[in-house]
Design brief:
This protein is mostly helical. About 80% of the residues lie in helices and about 0% in strands. The chain has helices at about 5, 20-40, 40-45, 55-85, 90-115, 115-140, 150-175, 185-215, 220-245, 250-275, 285-305, 310-345, 355-360, 365-385, 390-430. It binds protoporphyrin IX containing FE.
Length: about 425
Amino acid sequence: MFAGQFMMGAQDRLLPPSIPFRFFATAIVFHLAGWAVLLAGADDLSGFMGGLGLGLAGLHLITLGVLAMTAMGAAFQLLPVATSRQLGPNWACRLTWWIYTPGVGVLCLGMATQWMWALHLGGTLVAVGLAVFGVLVGRNLLQVSELPGVTRHAWVALASLAGLAVLGLALIADFQSGFLPDHTSLAAAHAILAGYGFMGSLALGFSYVLVPMFVLSQGVSDRDGRRTATLTALALAVAAIGAALGNGMAAALGGVIGLIAIGLHLRALLAVLETRMRKRLETFFRMVKAAWIMLPVTVLMGLFLALGSSPELTAPLWGWLLVFGWLLTFVTGILQRIMPFLASMHSGANGGKPALMSRLVADRPLLIHAIAHGLAVILVAAGLLAQAPLLVRAGAASGLIGAISFTLFAVELMRRYRAHETANSRHKGPSSC
Ligand code: HEM
């Protein structure tokens, strides 16, 4: 399927802009907060082996506040366009945001302060918000028989979402009552289901729509899509169960199956790039490519951890590369493009010329964000490896600079969008009545 075919009739399936953009805007605020908390708790990160504190709070401001938040906004808008099936009602999409957003704030407050009431209340609100999201997406997928690459990866993501939420709530309860047989192993299983399952499988499946759409190219074949979804599901099951049971060999086997799925996925996307019509790829795509390189690196680091090599080094490094090296690089890279893309599609909706995407984008803040983010990933990884808190602190500071620059890009995008719409309404003027 050629990218253009996704876009046919897409205009009719656009949700009111306030739905996807409230998720994107909130993700940008939590992005700032996440890096600021990581900077404040930089000393916690070196040798981080889990447990409550600023490290865990900063981690979940990014995982729940940026990664999952963006995935929800993107899924609500992308699925109706890609599947040509309704997703909603709109009030339920908005309700998801009203439950989930304060939940993330309260949960991370609880993680930072060890206040059990905040951990329980925040965890419950987050789980309910994610459950409503899961039901809305599931209802859309149940109507679809085509696009197996996208739908099967989305089903794998929803199954992982159920698992990560149950484990996450159990880990919270265990801080108070200590009922879990092996807290650390279940935390690792939680991270595998959350990072590779929910976020990872969504990223792989949505790439089969987003990449051809952004580079104007042929899509990925249904056969490749089916294969990577099946192998991803198998890899996740073996790795998560192995980790939960504390069986490193089984977890490692899951990692090896995962590497095969990743190889097939990247081969399919590189073939898409070969046949693309848009030759020049902007900053956002350099971040997407960097994320493609980081993905197998995170699995290799996970293999070292699963096989027991220096867990005090490999455990924090694996978590860091998984969440910041791969997922945050990919998600903020996609956000760099999906926001102006969607704004340009909405512009002119009230009559008048639509805005050119390139006119809505300020390139410099995006470049500063990409460079500062890359530096942050490298400096913190080096600091974790060398157990040097100063390097970790410098990396977190660079991450915060990147987050500020990304915020400036978003503010400028909104300013240009509004200026365009105002000019449009002026041109329309009373004469058009
Ligand atoms: C319902 C939502 C969630 C809840 C309630 C939750 C809760 C928790 C808790 C309590 C821990 C601490 C375990 C410990 O270190 O002792 C934890 C660890 C972790 N979580 Fe979450 N989490 C949630 C969602 C996510 C998501 C969406 C991601 C990633 C995309 C994620 C990634 C991680 C990682 C990487 C760890 C560290 C694991 C380790 O220490 O081995 N979490 N989570």
